[in-house]
Amino acid sequence: MSIQDLIRPTVKALKPYSSARDEYQGNSDAMVFLDANENPFENGVNRYPDPQQRTVKSLLSKIKSIPQKNILLGNGSDEVLDLIYRAFCEPNQDNIITLPPTYGMYSVLANINAVAIKRVQLDENFQPKVDAILEEADSNSKLLFLCSPNNPTANSFKAKSIERLVREFKGIVVIDEAYIDFSNEESWASRLNEFPNLIVTQTLSKAYGMAGIRLGICYASEEIISVINRIKPPYNVNELTQQKAIAQLEQNELTQQQVASILSERDILVEELDAISFVSKIYPTDANFVLAKVDDATKRYNELIEKGIVIRNRTTQPGCENCLRFTVGTKEENEVLIKALKALE
Ligand SMILES: *Cc1c(COP(=O)(O)O)cnc(C)c1O
């Protein structure tokens, strides 16, 4: 398979915008910058940010053991996913494959980009039906989205199934690893060298505790990274976001401690939920949330709202009838939730 054949012709032909910071990349010490029409009076953000976010990438590169040249950053993973659509999917011609129940953005972005959606529902254990997916694919199927650990089901997909899909799908396979930092599975980003058609996305929004700054991460081959670089807005990650991300990534032990605490609280939460009379099933979780089946999801959702607790009602998702999704909070928050649920028994 040639990645070049998967890229949209318009993107291949594009001459990218060249920003002032792209054109001069030398040492910034002791230089006088009169190239970008900025206001010269220092206030911390009067200069344009680094369009290649080199300091953030170098920290990520160390933490994740992925070379910097295989990393691209975006304004949240939502921007990264949108850029992937725009690089590979020709509007009103190509299609993508998504595996419901899963993250809603894949189909929203398909609709925005006028790209058709093929859906192959996960099996009863929320695992991908590999043969059915490969059969569903046609020559216009450019992207296959695998969300692992999957939102809202919380489980990881079997490595064997993922590997077969990456090997046999004749387009780009995007593995959304938004929850990988909570998982026991290894990131697929460590195997980019084996699979030229693989894109792995991650985010600082979940385990890293930085949903507010909007920083999404894309790991892929240099070839794919350079395609997406051509179409990304030049200054897509702002200066404040870069500064905050750097500060957070420099204290990575704190994130690891918080993840460990969330995971141990998750186990307690699962036990407590299991003891609630109207909870009939708790699905295995490899993430920082729990999917549970109850007697009447909409009724229980509304009752919790009345008690000031907001969870996610997933009952309308395929295969998730009467399912509620609980994010793991602090010890105190989880106790408030369990107390409220007990009062509803
Ligand atoms: C939360 C989440 C994201 C994160 O998106 P950002 O735009 O980076 O905040 C991505 N994928 C899935 C499946 C998620 O649940």
UniProtKB/TrEMBL annotation:
One of its GO terms (molecular function) is pyridoxal phosphate binding. The keyword Acetylation does not apply. Keywords: Amino-acid biosynthesis, Aminotransferase, Histidine biosynthesis, Pyridoxal phosphate, Transferase. The lineage of its organism: Bacteria, Pseudomonadati, Bacteroidota, Flavobacteriia, Flavobacteriales. It comes from the Bacteria. This is Histidinol-phosphate aminotransferase. Homodimer. Its EC number is 2.6.1.9. Belongs to the class-II pyridoxal-phosphate-dependent aminotransferase family. Histidinol-phosphate aminotransferase subfamily. It catalyses: L-histidinol phosphate + 2-oxoglutarate = 3-(imidazol-4-yl)-2-oxopropyl phosphate + L-glutamate. The modification N6-(pyridoxal phosphate)lysine is found at residue 206. InterPro entries: Aminotrans_II_pyridoxalP_BS, Aminotransferase_I/II_large, HisP_aminotrans, PyrdxlP-dep_Trfase, PyrdxlP-dep_Trfase_major, PyrdxlP-dep_Trfase_small. It comes from Hyunsoonleella pacifica. PANTHER family: HISTIDINOL-PHOSPHATE AMINOTRANSFERASE, HISTIDINOL-PHOSPHATE AMINOTRANSFERASE-RELATED. Its cofactor is pyridoxal 5'-phosphate. Residues 43-341 form the Aminotransferase class I/classII large domain. Pathway: Amino-acid biosynthesis; L-histidine biosynthesis; L-histidine from 5-phospho-alpha-D-ribose 1-diphosphate: step 7/9; Lipid metabolism. GO terms for biological process: L-histidine biosynthetic process. The keyword Amino-acid biosynthesis applies. The gene is hisC.
